[in-house]
Amino acid sequence: MMDIAINTPALLFPAITILFLAYSNRFLTIATRIREKHADFNKTRSPIAHKQIVSFRRRLRFIVAMELFAVLGIISCTVAMGFIFLGLQQWGNFAFGISIAFIILSLLASIIELLLSTKALNIELEDMT
Fold first, then answer.
1. How far is CA 69 from CA 51, 87, 124, in A?
2. 128: three-class secondary structure by DSSP
3. Residue 114 DSSP code
4. Can you tell me the mean pLDDT for 1-18?
5. Phi then psi for 2, rounded to 5 degrees?
6. Are the C-beta atoms of 56 and 86 separated by less than 8 Å?
7. In terms of Cα–Cα distance, which of 106, 103, 102 is closest to 26?
8. What is the DSSP string of 31-97?
9. Residue pair 66/110 in contact by the 8 Å Cβ criterion
10. CB atoms within 10 A of CB 10
11. Is 59 exposed, middle or buried (0-12, 13-18, 19+ CB in 10 A)?
């Protein structure tokens, strides 16, 4: 197994920061859309609005998963740096591997949410055709 230096896990910090920014924007956008669609549904009881609300619920779960995995990734990355700093190279390597796994899970959840988002846009377009 290859030993990693303390600056290797540190390289993930800028990437994780950008992920958080993107994920937070997604969360804020969907929260706004949910509030709008909720008001619309209460007024019209439209089946399309109902489909959108169901879609929002699923998408929201994936956004929470994205953020949770990203947080766990940065915590694991920080723990890896701590282990390496303390001279516990094997533990540092292991923690760094865990952090990469969490980031991959976060990105996979992001892809699924993106696909659900595209499906939601198609639901929105249903009543226009």
1. 27, 27, 29
2. coil
3. H
4. 75
5. -80, 140
6. no
7. 106
8. HHHHHHHHHHHHHH--HHHHHHHHHHHHHHHHHHHHHHHHHHHHHHHHHHHHHHHTT-HHHHHHHHH
9. yes
10. 14
11. buried
Q: What is the pLDDT of residues 58-116, one digit of tens each?
A: 999 999 999 999 999 989 999 999 999 999 999 999 999 999 999 999 999 999 999 99
1 token code pair: 């197994």
For residues 24 and 31, give the distance between their C-alpha atoms in angstroms, rounded to a whole number: 10
Q: Which residues, other chains included, contact 6 with Cβ-Cβ below 8 Å and sequence gap of 6+?
A: 81, 84, 85
The encoded tokens of residue 8 equal: 């290797």
Tokens of 96: 């760094």
23 contacts: CB under 8 Å, gap ≥ 6: 63, 66, 67, 70, 110
- Using the 8-state DSSP alphabet, how is residue 19 labeled? H
DSSP tag of 1: -
Question: Residue 124 gets which letter from DSSP?
Answer: H
